[in-house]
Amino acid sequence: MNESTKTDILNAAKYLFYNEGYGQTSIRKIADKCDIYHSNILYYYKNKQTILEYIFKIYYERFLDLIFKIEKNLTPEELILCTILINENFSKYNKKFKKLYFESIDILANILHGYAKEYYPLIEGVKINPILESRYLMDIILILTVEKETHKMFGDDQTNAHISYFKNYKLKLFAYLLDIGTDTFEKAQITAQRVARKIDYNQLNIFNNNYRITIEGDIKKSNKV
User: Which of 132, 150, 163, 213 is the most buried (most CB within 10 A)?
Assistant: First the structure.
């Protein structure tokens, strides 16, 4: 397996997904950008969904790295609220990312479900409870769908009042679905807001051309070039 070709495919796909959209990007377009035959891509990746899934996993690894550099000892509740606020802020300021994000709800739901099982204690043990695992996956899909439809409803009318209301609604929806008590939620929200203000959103943007995705075994972080 040629690792150089594999990384070239990832970076070409990253560029096209971000600039032209997931739906408008075909395997053939990715191949043309890499100057290879499109059948070669299918040797390395099952389909374009697999490629985007890999890219989003790298995005969330960087996401978590940046959070933990600011605050290492977050509670699970603080961490989950941090991810909501930071992702909302990033989507607000990065329209291309926002479009790609909402095109990829099915992919994102599975990725976020994996991180939730790792970081959130209420769903530890879901491997032995398929019904509970399905419920949390459906919760994530519900939240992502609500987010998408709300943004679609507001359109370009992203006033501060709308953004503030939606952030609070989404945070409370998470709290309700994950059975987070009121006191715990309020304390976690204060910490999450502080961390979200300190995040360097430029570093979070792995879709920027200044970052090149590299492969070293499993999922690894992007490297600045």
Answer: 213
**pLDDT tens string 51-88:** 999 999 999 999 999 999 999 889 888 888 888 889 88
Q: What is the pLDDT of residue 217?
A: 46
Answer whether 86's CB lies under 8 Å from 63's CB. yes
In the chain, domain spans: 3-50+207-224, 71-204
Please state, in angstroms and rounded to a whole number, the distance separating the CA atoms of residues 6 and 2: 6
3-state secondary structure of 41: helix
Instruction: Report d(CA 66, CA 194) in Å as an integer.
Output: 13
Superfamily of domain 3-50+207-224 in CATH is Homeodomain-like (1.10.10.60)
Question: Does residue 94 sit in helix, strand or coil?
Answer: coil
* CB contact at 8 A, 207 and 16: no
Q: What is the spatial distance between Cα 17 and Cα 87, in angstroms, rounded to a whole number? A: 18
Task: Name residues whose C-beta falls within 8 Å of residue 96's C-beta, 6 or more positions apart in sequence.
Answer: 18, 19, 207
SS3 21: coil
Per-residue DSSP letter, 198: H
